[in-house]
Amino acid sequence: MSGHSSVYASENYAGAEACIACHKAQGDAWLSSDHYQSMQRADENVVLGDFSGTKYTFGKRTSRFFVQDGQYFIETFNQQGKQQTYPVRYVFGYRPLQQYLLETEPGRLQAFDVAWDTRPRSEGGQRWYQLQDESVTDPEHPFFWTGYYQNWNSRCAACHTTDFEKQFNSETNQYHSTWTDVNVACESCHGPGQEHIQSITDKTYSSDKTGLKDLGEKLVFHFNDGDPIARPQQSPQGPSLALDTCGACHSRRSELKELSGTEPYHQQFQLEGLDEPLYFSDGQIREEVFVLGSFLQSKMAEAGVTCTNCHDPHTGKTLLPGAQLCSTCHAPTVFAAPEHTNGHEGADCLDCHMPERVYMGVDARRDHRFHRPSPKHPNSSSPCKTCHGDASEGWLTNALKAWPKRQGASPDTLGEWAALNQRLSALDVTAVNAASNLLNEDKLPSLEEAALVEKMVVIAPQRMLEKVSRMTDDDDPIIRQSAARAAASLPEASQYQLLLKLSQDPIISVRAEVASTLLSLRPQWFSRAPQLTALLEEYQQILRDSQDHPGANLGLARIASLQQQIPDAIKLYELALRIDPQHIPSLLSYSDFLRSFGNEDKARRQLELALRYGSDMAAVQFSYGLQKIRDKAYQQALPHLTKAANSTEAIPRYAFVNAVALWQLNYRKDAITVLTEADTRWPGNYDILVTRAKYAYQLRDVTALKTAVKALGEYYPNDATYKQLQRLLN
């Protein structure tokens, strides 16, 4: 276990013992926290599972848990499907479940996917159980425990230790990771402590020169003038504790550099947006999103509330139990009154406004959006189903419509947002007007604004051009990142100007989004615009810092290909697929790359693997259909192209190619039908409109031709093809 003992990863970090020596009360509180228990070295004091030789069988696998010479071991399937014994090096967590980290090779730790349920036996606990379904017990499954998705070094360590340094060697595919404290300790939040200790020693310490990270200010909230909601007396100043400290780990995000522990959030991370399946379309949590994305949607965040207004920073526990805590800012005479609870005796604020969702089999976590159940979106009534599980959707909707309205309550803006977000997710063009009106009110949290814009620009790119352009000047990096993503759906001339402007943004998360968008759109722009050279170099470094992720190597491979560094590109593609052999974007991109150099056979093998692992993905079906066309197996191509075009993940090109293939194979009415449906789904797409008109003309279908030409003229009145067809009709 070289590099896994008490080796300090940085001389600037002092370690928790040094902190506790002076801050005993805070240290004692921390010792009772989940942060302290986030990870511990495996020994008899912390291991809670039954390692008495117990066997656990599930799916294709039987695992045995035992102790030998004071060391804990698990015997289970290895990557080849053979039984192998692995040492347990660390435990992960302690309630309501505990996982175990196994060392599969020196320096590489994997989170074993059979966990110990630590709840009392009376609650169903004190048992081994499988975290996912039985399919993951197959060594070929992408989530098999020895694979990339269960690797501790790349996916868990940064938020479960203090001062973690990954130290991944891409040449050997090995880790030499180090850290200061084995768990989430003092310096995870306060930053490196050596300068603080030195200032005490040198007697240079002062309140404005502490030597520690500035955590920001916790506002105090007061009731005033009969207002049933407490308000702060000032606006937040300085850094945001929720975003820059707690959010660093309590969020679904990607890392942009080796973590510093002191830099602002958006200079280190990219926050995931409110997209399904991470969130439901009403913004409630669905997958494991770890709080921040939910909290930033809330009125609490808007008002200046931060984590420590509700949670003790050292124990992590809430300052008061349940609704008692809510009543410190929401007057119980109003919010616990029958008029607010609609007569529901024993109603609890948390159950209605912070519904729970169970993860990892037994771990119930609350949604921190603090949303108001709304009749405007079906999932918004999900908290009600805790007690009204047998009620119909209609009954729940009507019950919420009839709920007493508190005098002075704000409009149900987020319920309206949720309804529109769902309609836009289904590419409902009729939702664009209402969504535009809601955006113009400027009342939405940034994440919710971004979610609408990124869907609207796909449906109505010309209409969204001005809005996306304004977003490039927004104060919030979340909005500017969204502008970079939205630019991908705009006309090419507009894309370039917007992305060029954002490439100079002061925030690295915005610049990274620009680089990613450019690579997926027109990578040659990097060579055409010298001012983008620095951006490309910065993005390469971001990707190099994450080379234990397949996506990072895919990005580097694309850049190497762009720069005509062909051997390097091949090496990077192969590394991506060594880390995750089932990484669909890498398989598809590598196939295209190989084909460009005439290696058709190997390119075809990548597509066959992609179809094997990702047959439910539209991009896979489309790429495989094109391969069948290149193989001149036209009839075999059709089912794949049709699946791609009909998928919820489809883009206009999939429908266009599907229609062309149908036409060429003499299924001409079917081709017209595909184009007509595509025009409804993606109104204004030039290729679809022109092709629909041309095919109607060739069929001599005057009615269809008039409809198609009229639609083309609405969007492209100066187009030469439109004018030619218009003359024919006249």
From TrEMBL:
Domain Doubled CXXCH motif: 304-333
A Pfam family matched in the record: Cytochrome_C554
Keyword terms of this UniProt record: Signal
Entry superkingdom: Bacteria
PANTHER family assigned to the protein according to its UniProt record, in alphabetical order: C-TYPE POLYHEME CYTOCHROME OMCC (PTHR35038:SF8), DISSIMILATORY SULFITE REDUCTASE SIRA (PTHR35038)
Protein name: Ammonia-forming cytochrome c nitrite reductase subunit c552
Domain Cytochrome c-552/4: 153-191
Gene source species: Alteromonas oceani
CDD domains: Cytochrom_C3 (cd08168)
Keyword Signal: yes
Gene3D superfamilies per the UniProt record, alphabetical: Flavocytochrome C3, Chain A (1.10.1130.10), Tetratricopeptide repeat domain (1.25.40.10)
Record carries keyword Signal: yes
InterPro entries attached to this UniProt entry: Cyt_c-552/4, Cyt_c552, Multihaem_cyt_sf, Multiheme_Cytochr_ET, Paired_CXXCH_1, TPR-like_helical_dom_sf
